[in-house]
């Protein structure tokens, strides 16, 4: 449920990062942080336990600015809710990383890095990412090559975004089984875990596929697949408006979702109904043949989705009993 936002531009990107975090608040989180590289080339970090507003207060008191940066909202998995465990994590004052998901083999990599002289300041699996990338960079790899070398070592499901204060012309992102999207601008580009975070700055997106590594620069984006070959990913134009995902007048997002249900249902059924009946064809070309044969319905869900699914049961026809088998 963590939130990722990254940006590279010719303007101060801290307001973009913070607005992106605000738009990802619906996901649930317990801490936040931002890391930016300013005009001096120095990497600065600010983290906070609690809501995005707590981080914003710290930034208001001690402003950070830069044209390259990352921001993250964390839901604790490895390690408790502390500032030290919040993202971004920084290696040797140079590499900053944010991460969604789990690195399953982090303990073995952490032992290796500790033996190599790296100090760990958090309880997270995420901190190994920054140190491992740093270890490859100091061996002579550029940032994209270092990230590719690092992810080749990882087992798990993750989305990773990395910046290097000594290579301030790029953001590098990678994903395995955790969503990550690149937002395309004019002379600026972005990365996020959700389109909604970037709607105020762009409507054009590339969705990274399994194993992709993206080298995101001001002037463009290059994507490499799991084998290291450069590939093209299609550009999609989002029809969502920036205010469609804002909380607006509602006290919280659940209340907003409840009141938006009639419109959401109407939008879903639009162009899918004729004479008050749902067109069977929307369920597939053989729907009319298959639907009458259905005998059971399995609801696979939890929480609110489970209750919504149970609400469907009373309006379904009773299933036909299967024939008895002879003893």
Overview of the molecule:
- By secondary structure, the protein is α+β, with helices and mostly antiparallel strands.
- The protein folds into two domains: 3-243, 4-Layer Sandwich (Glutamine Phosphoribosylpyrophosphate, subunit 1, domain 1), CATH 3.60.20; 260-315, no CATH class.
- Helix content is 24%, strand content 25%.
- The protein has an eight-stranded antiparallel beta sheet, covered by helices on one side. The chain has a seven-stranded antiparallel beta sheet with strand order 5-6-7-8-12-13-14. A two-stranded antiparallel sheet has the order 16-17.
- The longest helix has 11 residues, at 127-137.
- The protein starts with a strand and ends in a 17-residue tail after the last helix.
- The model has no long low-confidence stretch (mean pLDDT 89).
What's the arrangement of secondary structure elements?
Layout: E1 3-8, H1 14-23, E2 31-37, E3 43-49, H2 52-61, E4 68-74, E5 89-91, E6 95-103, H3 106-115, H4 127-137, H5 143-151, E7 156-164, E8 171-176, E9 181-184, E10 189-192, E11 204-207, E12 213-216, E13 221-224, E14 230-231, E15 236-237, H6 253-259, H7 261-269, E16 273-274, E17 277-278, H8 287-290, H9 303-310
Antiparallel strand pairs: 1-4, 1-10, 2-3, 2-4, 5-6, 6-7, 7-8, 8-12, 9-10, 9-11, 11-15, 12-13, 13-14, 16-17
Anisotropy-based shape: globular
Assembly state of the chains shown: single chain
Give the number of helices: 9
Cα radius of gyration in angstroms? 23 Å
* Number of discrete domains: 2
Mean pLDDT: 89
CATH class of the largest domain: Alpha Beta
CATH topology of the largest domain: Glutamine Phosphoribosylpyrophosphate, subunit 1, domain 1
Bin the helical content.
10-25%
CATH superfamily of the largest domain: Aminohydrolase, N-terminal nucleophile (Ntn) domain
What is the spatial order of strands in the main beta sheet?
A: 3-2-4-1-10-9-11-15
- What percentage of amino acids are in beta strands? 25-35%
SSE string, helices as H and strands as E = EHEEHEEEHHHEEEEEEEEEHHEEHH
Architecture (CATH level 2) name of the largest domain: 4-Layer Sandwich
Which structural class do the helices and strands define?
Answer: alpha+beta
* Number of DSSP strand runs: 17
Major sheet size, sense and barrel closure: 8 strands, antiparallel
Distance between the termini: 51 Å
Uncertain residue ranges:
none
